[in-house]
Amino acid sequence: MKLEQQKIVKAEILFSRKCNLKCSYCNMADGRSNTLSVENWKIGMDNLKKLGCSFAAFYGAEVMLEFNKLLEVLPYAEHIGIDTTIITNGTIVGTQDKLQRLYARGATSLSMSYDPVPIDKSSEIKSKKALELLSWFKNRGSGVRDVAAIATITNQNYESLPGMVKLMSSLGIWTFYDLYHYDRGQPGCKCGKYDSELAIRDNDKLLESLFAVGQLRKEGYLVHTNDHYLDVLNKKTVNKWNCADYDVFPSWVTIDCDGTVYPCDDFQPPEAKKFNVIEIYENWIDWRKKMKFLTKALCPGCFWNSHIGAHTIKAGLEDINDYIHRG
């Protein structure tokens, strides 16, 4: 396959590995700082664009803890034609001012965590901020592409998801969700230890709730997830979905705060350390070959919503304009 044919749909940018909260299901924060210079980040964005990247999510742990660099790098990505979103917990002092400055520099989208049934104190705090800031950002002006609330679906809240969709839609906010995942021993796992209180116990009832949400989407409610994700959940009751099983691998990459290019934000094999975003275009064929082998061999698989969505886009089953809500 020729280099120019090996496109990616999206990039996940782990812009910070620091966080001020301690959500029980998250293990993303490891205390590391963003070590790549702004100029090298811009080179990296250029490389992602050359690989066909249409969308980049800037998050972390907590992305606002690297705000000065974010204020330069995210607008540059928008400038070269990569649509972006900022994913923040909203609880850093001065977040609203920082978002206003980013909007003034070309930021068009805001995404925030929201748990319809709070799991812990951190979950409760960020969920309250999400409702406040998403509504505020949405009203910044015509330059806003979309705002989205991201829910982690657990045994405690999956029945509340249809109600969340209706609430958020009434406010002009999209709903995005991911199922609860836990650390299963893969390198670089972003998830916390297994929690029996959060793990889904009744898959049939879960699917019933998720298909109800799918029906709301067909009725015009602002639901990000499409039917392809639900089909995967419905069919894969024992074995988890593995992105390396498909010819379209990779449809995305994860860029860590030091510029390392990984297959996923939840699978980060040490062998990837030799690949950096500032030179990934030149090393793409080698990266793809090595990471496909490692992902298939060592990753236990997942049900991450946006990853399955990226694969369906690259396979031609979903439209990128719907995925990032261009209208």
Description of the structure:
The structure is a single chain. The longest helix has 18 residues. This protein starts with 9 loop residues before the first strand and ends with a helix. Helix 5 packs parallel to helix 6. With 327 residues, the protein is α/β, with parallel strands linked by helices. The chain has one domain: Aldolase class I (TIM Barrel, Alpha-Beta Barrel). It has an eight-stranded mixed beta sheet with strand order 6-5-4-3-2-1-7-8, sandwiched between helices.
N- to C-terminal distance = 33 Å
**Biggest pleated-sheet summary:** 8 strands, mixed
Biggest sheet, spatial arrangement of strands? 6-5-4-3-2-1-7-8
CATH fold descriptor: TIM Barrel
Structural class: alpha/beta
Reported CATH architecture: Alpha-Beta Barrel
